[in-house]
Amino acid sequence: MNFQNITDEELELIDKFLDEKLTEGESVDFHNRWESEPDFKKKVREVRLASMAIAEAMLEVEMQKFQPQPTSFEEKRKLFSHRFRLLTIIVSLVLVVVISKIISYTKVPYNIRLYKQYFQPDPGLMTTMGNTDKYDFEKAMIEYKEGKYQSAIDAWLLLGNLDPQNDTIAYFIGAAYQAIEKMDEAQKYLYKVLENPQSVFYKDANWYLGLIAIQKNDKVAAIRYLETSENDKAQKLIEGLK
Prior knowledge:
Elements: H1 8-18, H2 24-36, H3 38-64, H4 73-107, H5 110-118, H6 135-145, H7 149-162, H8 167-179, H9 183-194, H10 202-215, H11 219-229, H12 234-241
């Protein structure tokens, strides 16, 4: 099995698919690639086979514990030899995956690695889901927190049209777009937040705009936004950029 043609991003996406942990945005991305990229199907099969081989080998090792213990020297020698071969298989498969991930990781541009290292979607706001005029906003917030970013965006866009000056809606639309890696759209809405320096989301918007600038390899803009954000990770990130 050769994992060298599988990028770190692809391997992470496939692992999440096999573990059934894809978010809504990741699920859309996965199925789009599955339908449009023949090579992607091969990559999924390779990772699945490797995962199954490792699981089967480890299961066999565990099952050996329940076998009758050997009594003669020859039986012990055969058991030891069998377990050693199983262990060799497991180690070999794990090394293939680990080495392939290291190789693919080094091929990723530094600014993208830095972005992925620091980016975490905004955790969102607490919701009460009471009978209030904020019901539609909070329902979308729950979807956002569940990783259903596009559904949240669609709902907030409708609310934003009714209240164009609402910095909370603008901020979370931008945050949701960034979570599904639509950076231009994310910037558009985060810029709206910056129009009001008194907004409670002003510093956070600067932080995420700084990360987008890193992703786009614009160091000057990134440093400017990060410094304004006053985020406790900003200084270390700026040092990484320099």
